[in-house]
Amino acid sequence: MNAQRPEPKSLRGRTVVLSPLARADLPELYSAIGRPEVFAAGYGGGPAGLPADAEAFATFAESYYPWATGIPFLVSVPRDGGRVVVGTSSLADLDTVNRGAHIGWTAYDPRVWATSVNVECKLLLLDLAFSHGFERVKLQADAVNTRSRAAILKLGATFEGILRHDRVRANGSWRDTAMYSILSEEWPAVRAGLESRLAADDRALPLS
Questions:
Q1: If we measure between CA atoms, which residue out of 138, 129, 125 comes closest to residue 179?
Q2: Is the pLDDT of residue 41 over 90?
Q3: Looking at the keywords, is Transferase present (predicted)?
Q4: What is the reported pTM?
Q5: What pLDDT sits at residue 208?
């Protein structure tokens, strides 16, 4: 049985909303993640890939985000009748025959690093994938990005190995990619762990 490609629609969690990314969202997204510390550990090809301004970010976004192979999402937090954009993540590389998917292209405003935002986003995206019949969801990071690699392991993913010289960084150097995955039979235990982490975290997000 093949997996089914999800329809692009908003996902609502306890504190975050994931909505299909639109071009009109890019200026707000740039304000949230267009920062040296976000690109420092390898996002977007590393520090040399940081767009100089909102216009350059819009050009970057056209080729970087997986518009054709999946669903890029905007991550926001409802505030005072509006929203605060805090980042982005995508469910893509949707192989419905072999039932494989990829959660990635993830970046957040540094103000919400080490908060519940990433945990809740991954809970929503993993649930979306597995509820549509996908068997394996991969997650990956630049091998030198120790912060992201630790966060992926903490989600409950299994380390599979390193793809050496997997892609070229924006500065021309080679990136090695650390690969992880979660399988459908592992999902109930992973989901319980993520839900437990969210239930135990009552901190307010530092967005004021």
A1: 138
A2: no
A3: yes
A4: 0.96
A5: 67
User: Residue 170 is part of which domain span?
Assistant: 11-199
CATH number at residue 25: 3.40.630.30
Task: Count CB-CB contacts under 10 A for residue 120.
Answer: 22
Residue 205 lies in a domain: no
Give the contacts of 204 (CB within 8 A, at least 6 positions apart): none
pLDDT at 30 over 70: yes
Q: Output the DSSP codes for the chain.
A: ----PPP---EE-SS-EEEE--GGGHHHHHHHH-SHHHHTTTGGGSGGG--SSHHHHHHHHHHHS-TTTSEEEEEEEEETTEEEEEEEEEEEEEETTTTEEEEEEEEE-GGGTTSHHHHHHHHHHHHHHHHTT-SEEEEEEETT-HHHHHHHHHHTPEEEEEEEEEEE-TTSPEEEEEEEEEEGGGHHHHHHHHHHHHHH--PPPS--
Residue 207 lies in a domain: no
